[in-house]
Design a protein that fits this description.
By secondary structure, the protein is an alpha+beta fold. It is built from one helix and five strands. Strands 4-3-2-1-5 form a five-stranded antiparallel beta sheet. A hairpin with a 2-residue loop joins strand 1 (about 20) and strand 2 (about 25-30).
């Protein structure tokens, strides 16, 4: 995924499905300069991690 798309997903009105290594996640924030995203597992908000935006995949 590209940084601009991750930022669009954060701002979207509708839910857009995103996965990290096959696990459904929510994007909490994006650092465009470092190309990193803070994400959490969909059903576990406390399970957060910072990952390269390129590792995220939008699920159609």
């Amino acid at each position: 995924m590209k940084v601009y798309r991750a930022q669009e997903i954060i701002q979207a009105e509708e839910k857009i499905n995103v996965e990290l290594n096959g696990v459904s996640v929510w994007i909490d924030s994006v650092d465009p300069e470092q190309e990193l995203a803070k994400v959490h597992v969909e059903d576990r908000p406390a399970d957060t991690r910072v990952v390269p935006v390129g590792e995220l995949q939008e699920v159609q």
